Amino acid sequence: MASITPIVSIADAPPAPAQRPRVVMVATAFASAASAMYFLSLVGMYLSQRTATLLGGNPWLPEDVIIPLTQPNLLLGTLLMSSVTMQWAVAGIKSDDRSHAYLALLITLGLGFCFIVMTAYLYSLMQFDLAQSSVSILFYAITAGHVLMLVAAMVFVVLMAYRALGGQFTSRQHDGMSAAALYWHTTVAVFALIWLAIYITK
């Protein structure tokens, strides 16, 4: 006697697992926008005061302060490379290639540390006294503030890497790593603005 296979309709099929809300991604987008607006306002103040000072016939930077170009160019190149490795980490998580993702995260953090060391070296070369003028206050508010933003991005990456090691991120669910990449890319974009407005135009 032949067995009869019951016909299962589409309505009887189990529902697809619910997609988790992308709370981390949305919150990071707001934080990235707020950080970018903060630095845009500071750079705007810097350029406004610089223009007013130069139009008044006064020098903008003190005569004993020299801003070299080699270190800022290296800083920009370092961050651009870190942006590539950060996206490499996201691609590794999306394809469940964890070994490449962990390697990319390690390289990204290493490049971030190199950026901090090179910035400290640049400060030592410039010898820009904080109490020298309002220019120095604005300069350090922007550049040192960006270093703090990078440190926050590195902490974010470390936390997401820890969650990835715990198996919380897969090719289906990778919003945390994508959020860390979004904030990292924002940090890189902010420095590109600082590089052009402060180190190049001086």
Question: Can you offer a commentary on this structure?
Answer:
- The chain has 5 helices and no strands.
- It is mainly alpha-helical and 202 residues long.
CATH fold call = Four Helix Bundle (Hemerythrin (Met), subunit A)
Query: How large, in whole angstroms, is the Cα Rg?
Result: 24 Å
CATH architecture: Up-down Bundle
Low-confidence stretches: none
Tally the structural domains. Answer: 1
According to CATH, the homologous superfamily is: Cytochrome c oxidase, subunit III, four-helix bundle
- By DSSP (H or I, 4+ residues per run), the number of helices equals 5
CATH top level label: Mainly Alpha
Query: How many angstroms separate the termini?
Result: 91 Å
Give a short account of the largest sheet: none
* Shape annotation: elongated
Q: What percent of residues adopt helix (DSSP H or I)? A: over 70%
Strand percentage: under 5%
Look at the helices and sheets and give the structural class: mainly alpha
Q: What is the strand tally?
A: 0
List the secondary-structure elements in sequence, H or E.
HHHHH
